[in-house]
Specification:
It is built from no helices and 11 strands.
């Protein structure tokens, strides 16, 4: 992508230095302010279907969140922030283009990231601090369960 230099601002008109005619403008031309878009995901919980077909919470001794997979489209960059109450935090960035690939503007895809924390003690936040657009369509969690002795959960 190209980041232009603002020449002047007058009301709702912003002039950017350079030749931005159709032949010189990169595909996926965006104008925007850089700000932090943040979404904190709810904690993943295990649920069972009862005989009536409704969901009920399942009793599980421990549920370890192993991975998350974020589905996105028309996105360029974002990061996943994983926080734990003891103040440890790590960030997992997604940046497009990937080294060695052509810059295609925004893309569609899936982003798999590791968590390896207990579901009740972890906060996962999606952050986009770039001026580029993003559209997130869903998330899937992979958990490892430690069940009480003799308890079975149907798949």
């Amino acid at each position: 992508g190209v980041i232009g230099t603002v020449d002047s601002v007058s009301g709702a008109v912003v002039k950017i230095e350079g030749d931005w005619s159709a032949g010189n403008r990169p595909d996926g031309f965006f104008v925007g302010y850089s700000y932090d878009l943040e979404h904190k995901f709810s904690k993943p919980l295990v649920r069972n279907k009862n005989q009536q077909g409704s969901d009920t919470p399942a009793y599980v001794n421990r549920a370890q969140v192993r991975y998350g997979t974020l589905a996105f489209n028309r996105s360029r960059s974002f990061e996943i922030r994983v926080d734990k109450p003891d103040a440890t935090q790590f960030n997992i960035p997604f940046n497009h283009p990937v080294l060695g690939q052509p810059d295609e503007g925004v893309i569609d895809g899936y982003f798999r990231f590791s968590v390896f924390r207990r579901n009740t003690e972890t906060e996962v936040t999606l952050v986009n601090s770039s001026p580029y657009p993003s559209n997130f369509t869903g998330i899937e969690w992979e958990l490892k369960l430690a069940n009480p002795r003799g308890t079975r959960y149907p798949m």
